[in-house]
Design a protein that fits this description.
heterodimer, A: 339 residues, alpha/beta, Peroxisomal Thiolase, Chain A, domain 1, 2 domains, ten-stranded mixed beta sheet, two-stranded antiparallel sheet, 11 helices, B: 302 residues, mainly beta, five-stranded antiparallel beta sheet, 16 strands, 8% helix, 31% strand, Thiolase-like (chain A), acyltransferase activity (chain A), transferase (chain A)
Chain lengths: 339, 302
């Protein structure tokens, strides 16, 4: 296995509304930022994550390539999912051994449409999507299956918002938690906010990592696992795939100081903490997490970037970044980062 | 033409739609399920390990192996394993009134089906609640051939409304004659000397005979009261107050309405006076007394 590290991370100052910037305009500054930080102008491989349904336009990632400088032709790929999986693909590409650097980015503007309905399109077209089962209803079914303690959920929301207010990139959400159900038992405050934003990461292999970054965040383990799509075929109170991905990535081989979890609903944090077997002293989502900023298709990549940032700045020597995809945490990616 | 100079944001509405919808092939497994659904049946498919998957998948989610070609009719009823309440239905939802989404384990199935339940209120569904499918009249082979599920019948409502013809005779007639004249008639027991109102023929305490009726004043004191929040055809409004009123000179309180005062101001010891209908409107009925209303006197000791 080649030693690959996250050597740079940048993200937009996310917004809760459409600022009028196109996706290309959104990603250009973050790509310039990681180029500047690493001094790299060209990369051995480039991979992005986004979702056409957010923009309502086919191949919307192709237009976004204008932000890269794609001439002369570059080696490039795209995943129709969170940028975290683009990072996984880039990591696999770097294992081939013929290139040493990769640029990864993810972007999404969830303000353009009605995310709650748009996410219905991620469901299977025979049994679930025709019912009109929307994103919040799906999450509420999982929350009901878990039956979490309300005080525990409120504490997650309070902590996430407070951490988010201290994070200049996250949204400035009020300390006062609104009451009221979106879909019972899911409260409106349990839901990640509508967010526009983008993020970029640079991966470097071998010696290049140490040349580009003072304290690279080495990827010591990375794995993803998925479960049956249909909600009624699994125990929604648990995430077997997150547990299996964490085991495969070796998360439990040492203490985890910081974990950035892709929990878009308060109850998902409880399910993930249990699946990843996080001890009580692990700091969870110090960035505020998705409950403080959720630029869909970049949120998972930001978890890896935020975890890496804590290795870079020396506040942690071992951290976990987690990303999720699909309804009710169907698909989970766990990355173990070490100084 | 020169370009328009404006600060207004350039906003356009954009809809993503394939005219007529997407045509999808179902394959044999999902196709079988939908075909049975059109016929008003729910089937699951058996895995090699013997579990019944509902709705059927082509593979066993536990092992990834192909399922058998044995289809098993399940349900139609099942038990809810988890439910979420939608207080405000959206355009694409199956019901246009508040409803629940639920995971439903149909009888004979080993997995849960996701569907809508017309549960009435969020408390009506808990794990274990039994639900039955409500079928659409014109079925086409679609998951929405089941319009929704509804909770199992566990109670019924039976309206009861017999009618009677009641005749006021004897002592009651004496009392109502008094009420028509605008006075309350009581009776004093010849043995124990207690005064009862309304007038009655015998003393309920000692059994002694009553003397001639005695006229009582239409003022009294509230001994206890209730604030009623259910409508009653005899009451003026909701909430209304019904009270026991001890008429001056009586030993037993009489039940009547209290009005002309906010319900929360009514109290024990309050002095009240009957408010009579005009003489021309009176009948042989307690309705002659509109209600008792405060006199404004200081409260009485009880």
């Amino acid at each position: 296995m080649r030693d690959v590290a996250i050597v740079a991370f940048a993200q937009t100052r996310h917004t809760g509304h459409d600022t009028g910037l196109s996706e290309t305009e959104l990603i250009l500054p973050v790509i310039n930022e990681v180029k500047e930080r690493t001094g790299l102008r060209r990369f051995g491989f480039t991979c992005s994550g986004s979702c056409d349904y957010l923009a309502g336009a086919p191949f919307s990632f192709v237009a976004a390539l204008d932000a890269l400088g794609a001439w002369p032709p570059i080696s490039e790929s795209h995943v129709e999912m969170d940028g975290a999986w683009a990072l996984y693909e880039a990591w696999v590409r770097l294992q081939h051994g013929d290139v040493d650097s990769a640029l990864v980015y993810g972007f999404g503007k969830s303000s353009l449409g009605d995310l709650r309905t748009i996410m219905t399109l991620q469901l299977d077209p025979y049994y679930l999507e025709p019912l009109g089962l929307d994103q919040l209803s799906v999450a509420a079914l999982q929350a009901a299956a878990l039956g979490a303690d309300r005080a525990e959920l409120d504490e997650i929301v309070r902590r996430s918002r407070a951490d988010g207010r201290a994070n200049p990139y996250a949204l400035d959400l009020p300390a006062e938690i609104p009451d009221g159900f979106a879909v019972e038992p899911l409260k409106t405050c349990d839901i990640a906010p509508i967010t526009d934003g983008a993020a970029a990461v640079v991966l470097a292999a071998g010696d290049l990592a140490a040349r580009l970054c003072e304290r690279p965040a080495h990827i010591r383990g990375i794995a993803h696992r998925t479960e049956p799509h249909y909600l009624g075929m699994r125990d929604l109170a648990r995430s077997a795939s997150a547990a299996e991905a964490a085991r495969a990535a070796g998360a439990g081989k040492g203490p985890i100081e910081v974990a950035e979890l892709h929990a878009q609903f308060a109850h998902e944090e409880l399910i993930l903490r249990r699946a990843l077997e996080l001890p009580g002293d692990t700091i969870v989502n110090p960035s505020g997490g998705p409950l403080a900023a959720n630029p869909v298709m970049a949120t998972g990549l930001i978890r890896l970037g935020e975890a890496a940032r804590r290795i870079h700045d020396g506040t942690a020597s071992r951290a976990v970044g987690h990303a999720a995809s699909g309804p009710c945490l169907q698909h989970n990616l766990v990355t173990v980062l070490e100084a | 033409m020169p370009p328009h100079e404006t600060d207004e944001p350039l906003v356009a509405r954009h809809v993503l739609e394939f005219p007529g919808g997407y045509t999808r092939t179902t394959g044999p497994v999902i196709g079988r399920f939908l075909t049975e659904l059109r016929a008003g049946r729910v089937v699951g498919v058996r895995t090699a390990e013997g579990r019944v998957l509902v709705p059927p998948l082509e593979y066993d989610p536990a092992t990834g192996d192909a399922v058998t070609d044995e289809y098993v009719e399940v349900g139609p009823a099942g038990a809810v394993t988890a439910a979420a309440w939608v207080p405000e239905p959206r355009a694409g939802h199956p019901l246009d009134r508040p409803f629940a989404w639920a995971l439903i384990r149909l009888d004979g199935a080993d997995t849960a089906l996701v569907h809508a339940v017309d549960a009435g209120n969020p408390k009506a569904l808990r794990p274990g609640t039994r639900v039955w499918p409500v079928w659409r009249q014109n079925r086409t082979g679609h998951i929405t051939d089941i319009s929704h599920f509804a909770p199992e019948v566990t109670r019924i409502v039976s309206p009861v409304r017999p009618e009677y013809r009641i005749q006021a005779g004897g002592a009651l007639r004496v009392f109502l004659d008094g009420v028509r004249r605008g006075v309350f008639l009581g009776g004093r027991c010849a043995t124990c000397a207690k005064v009862y109102v309304p007038y009655r023929a015998s003393c309920p305490e000692c059994g002694g005979a009553m003397e001639e009726p005695v006229e009582l004043p239409d003022t009294g004191t509230i001994t206890t009261f209730a604030i009623n929040n259910l409508p009653d055809p005899r009451a003026p409004e909701v909430p209304f107050v019904s009270a026991y009123i001890l008429l001056d000179g009586a030993d037993i309180p009489m039940i009547a309405l209290v009005g002309g005062v906010p319900a929360h101001e009514v109290r024990q010891g309050m002095r009240v006076r009957a408010e009579w209908l005009p003489e021309s409107e009176r009948t042989l009925s307690m309705a002659n007394v509109r209600w008792f209303t405060p006199t404004g006197e200081p409260d009485a000791e009880l």
